[in-house]
Amino acid sequence: MELERNAEFLQGLGIKAEPTVANLPSLGNNIVHLKPKEDYFIIFPGAASCKRMWPVDRFAEFVRSIVKETGWALVLCGTKSEFEISESIIKLSGIKAINLAGKTSLPEFSEIIRGAKLLIGNETSAVHIAATVNTPSVCILGGGHFGRFMPYSKAVDGVKPIAVYARMNCFGCNWKCVRKHDPNECVPCVAAVSIENVRSAAKKLIKGL
């Protein structure tokens, strides 16, 4: 993966380097007014393209089960363009939640993640930020860039995201999907990731808290 390649590049220059996730120091932002007072988890439902986004109805069913099991508050994060997607999850799940999509700066977003018990999202910067602030996370992963950015290899130190995926023989397609699918929906490898598999990964992390 990229972390290992970067380390190897530096080693080739005679610089001592290991494939390690850097720890992001607290930026000291006052986010008390943004986050819940109680324990909470984060859903990050967006991605750079709809083809990489797990379906809204699955996120909704997933959050119902996590709230039922943990009693944690739900926070949804993302960009301004993902506000309505987040609202759809809230509506479908029937769970009272805080929708922060488009309402935080990047430093504030990082601190929101730092304070969370758990983050679940698609393959975006959110899961990588979670790793830098030592927040457990689950990444719903497609095969477009499989192995380049995710999953994290065993050689990488720190709190690594758990990648959940449904392997197909077309992995590594660079997101040029060769399978028939609706261009307005996620690609088949993302659609093949089941709610149960995501729930199982989340439960594993919850037990470790």
TrEMBL record:
Protein name in the entry: Glycosyltransferase family 9 protein
Gene Ontology MF annotations: ADP-heptose-lipopolysaccharide heptosyltransferase activity
InterPro entries, per database record: Glyco_trans_9 (IPR002201), LPS_LOS_Heptosyltrfase (IPR051199)
GO cellular component, one term: cytosol
GO terms of biological process kind: lipopolysaccharide core region biosynthetic process
The UniProt record lists the keyword Signal: no
UniProtKB keywords: Glycosyltransferase, Transferase
Organism: Desulfosarcina ovata subsp. sediminis
Keyword Membrane: no
Listed Pfam families: Glyco_transf_9 (PF01075)
